[in-house]
Backbone:
């Protein structure tokens, strides 16, 4: 069985900082990775008080293959996926219009919600990339998230207000509950055209599944 990170309940993470520290330590033990790719923003119209509810994605919205990843920014195996397998899959399938990729941020809730705050400004992917690359630098969640936002060019006033208000906490928790309803018990967990594949796998293993879906 492929290795993966245990998915902590969202409410527990918010209430118990010890679990947050444990998650951070786990991420330090593995090489922080990330990916660099073009921004594609998808969401509802943004405005004051407007909550974006649609998932951001990369690739062709009408691609024959849809890959959805339930992934935590502090999970070492998730970081490894985005460092190793993801760049290969992006070049081979996403950039060529063969696959649509959707990222579902998993707990800790504060970090997942912050990614949605970045989505408001059209920088979900840049912010996600930065989080995967710098997860080992977390020491105090909220101040660090705000600092990271500034580092990727987000409007700090808008971002800070979004994070402080907890605007997307409910949406982040909804993603967690959605994952649980699908049987997600750890991260990363992938669904490729609805077929579950949980854990850390190579680009070659993912490609084998994707190619079979493309043949249908």
Residues:
């Amino acid at each position: 069985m492929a290795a993966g990170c245990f998915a902590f309940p969202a409410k527990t993470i918010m209430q118990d900082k010890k679990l947050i520290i444990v998650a951070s330590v786990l991420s330090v033990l593995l090489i922080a990775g990330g990916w660099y790719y073009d921004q594609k923003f998808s969401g509802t119209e943004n405005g004051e008080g407007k909550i974006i509810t649609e998932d951001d994605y990369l690739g062709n919205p009408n691609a024959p293959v849809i890959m959805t990843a339930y992934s935590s920014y502090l999970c070492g195996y998730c970081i490894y996926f985005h460092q190793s397998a993801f760049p290969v899959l992006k070049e081979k399938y996403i950039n060529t219009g063969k696959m649509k990729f959707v990222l579902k941020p998993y707990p800790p809730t504060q970090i997942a919600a912050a990614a949605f705050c970045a989505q408001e400004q059209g920088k979900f992917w840049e912010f996600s990339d930065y989080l995967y690359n710098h997860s080992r630098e977390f020491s105090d969640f909220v101040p660090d998230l705000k600092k990271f936002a500034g580092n990727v060019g987000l409007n700090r006033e808008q971002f800070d207000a979004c994070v402080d208000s907890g605007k997307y906490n409910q949406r982040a928790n909804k993603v967690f509950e959605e994952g649980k309803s699908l049987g997600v018990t750890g991260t990363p967990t992938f669904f490729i055209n609805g077929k579950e594949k949980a854990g850390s796998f190579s680009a070659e293993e993912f490609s084998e599944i994707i190619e079979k879906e493309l043949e249908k």
